[in-house]
Structure formats: C-alpha cells, structure tokens
Amino acid sequence: RPWALLLDPIKEVSTLKKLTKSSSTMVASTLALGAGCYWGTEKFVVKDFQKKFPGSIAKATVGFMSPDPNAMENPSYRQVCSGTTGHIEVLFIELSDPKVYEALVRFFFQFHDPTTMNRQGNDVGTQYSSVIFCADEDQKKIAQNVKDELQALVDAGKVKYAGGKVVSEIIDLKTFYAAHEEHQAYLEKNPLGYCNHYYRFKGDWPQLN
Description:
By secondary structure, the chain is of the alpha+beta class. It is about 30% helix and about 20% strand.
C-alpha cells in the first residue's frame, strides 16, 4: 500500500510525549483534525496557524481516519467521498512544539463550523464531520475543556455559528491513511482551488465576562 501511512497511536504517544504549558501535564505531539474538506483544513492550519506560531508544526498530511477501529483499510478518495466507509477527511499533524496544542484546538474552532453535524457549508456527509482525534487522555481533556468553553460562549451569544450546539467529537486517534500526493498541499499548489473554510471569529479567544 504505497500511499497509506499506518500509525500506531500507542507507539506515537510513547515516543512523542512532551511537556505542555503546565510542567505537570504531558501531552502527545500527534493529533488529527477533521473540519470538512481537508484542503482547507490544511491551508488554515499549516499557513495561518503558523503565522501565529512559526515552526510549531513538524509535519502535516491530509488523509483519512475512521472512528471505527474495524473500518475498511486503505480506502480510496472516491470511496471516502461516497460516505459509506465511515472515514473522515482529516489533517494528521505532528507538532514540533506540543505546547501549542491547546492554541491549535482553539484555532480549529475558529475556521470551521462545529455546530453543523456531518456538514461544512455545501459539503455534506459523514466524511466532513468535525472531529478531534487525540493521541492521549491529556489531549482529550484539553480539547473537552476548550469545547465546553466554546459552548458557553455560544450560549452567551459571544460566538455565532449556524447552530447552537457544538457537536464536534473528541475521540481516540486511529489508523491514518495518507491521501495521494496530488492532494497534499493542494491549495498551495492550486491557490484558486476549492476551499469553503473561513473565519467565524478571529483574534483573541472571547471572554464570557
């Protein structure tokens, strides 16, 4: 399988754990984000996020991941787009600086709509789910705390999306299958290519009070 990147989450956690902002908290360096079409996710994370945190991402690869550990192996792009495989279009990320993990999770919620189930704009299907695939429990706790904060901001009218409930899933990292090379850095190679991502809010994270 020449274009499948198979990752063992347990091995990744054991070899890539580093300190975050808190000296008492260990967080893994790998994660995967599903935020709709992976071309836009890649562009916003690799280009825009690194404007704020230069050099924070060691590697980013677009591809597919399923919440179901028994999902079919090595799905093709066409199969995933059919919505029948259970795979989600994701950006698999290796952080060079794990201290930015929480900032990345907050940024994730800024450039897509986490309130539209299995949909981002005109892109509809389970492959476009809003998901954070986490490599360890500390990542999951941080992501859940940020999600809870965001829900409170939505409830208070501080942040507006299409819906009123944040439905993003926070689940364990599973096997990742890299997409074909032509899909990697797609919007960098094709600046006028398809992208339906945009900022719902920018700047500092809103405060409730």
